[in-house]
Amino acid sequence: MKSIAVEELLKLDTNNIAIIDVREINEFQSGHISGATNIPAAGLFYNPEKFLDIHNHYYLICESGGRSSAVCNRLTELGYNVTNVSGGMSMFRHMKGE
């Protein structure tokens, strides 16, 4: 499974990459990366074809990196091109000074 640190993600143009926030809806609504799409982990884990194009690359993020890592492992096994954002939103908020 591929992984990227929040510091590296912040160097990318987040307007030109697909960021999937796998937290629950209420967590997403309390704050998220601009441009991120919210798809809770269970949906992606069990029905990825409903949400993702197997030909695209996605960066997955959750609160601390645990849920997104589990989903990334599953999606990688299924042939999806995904990268886990290690540290998650808690590290993102820390890096942004929030």
Automatic annotation (TrEMBL):
A UniProt-annotated Pfam family: Rhodanese
**Rhodanese domain: residues covered:** 13-96
Q: Which InterPro entries match?
A: GlpE_sulfurtransferase, Rhodanese-like_dom, Rhodanese-like_dom_sf
Q: What is this protein called?
A: Rhodanese-like domain-containing protein
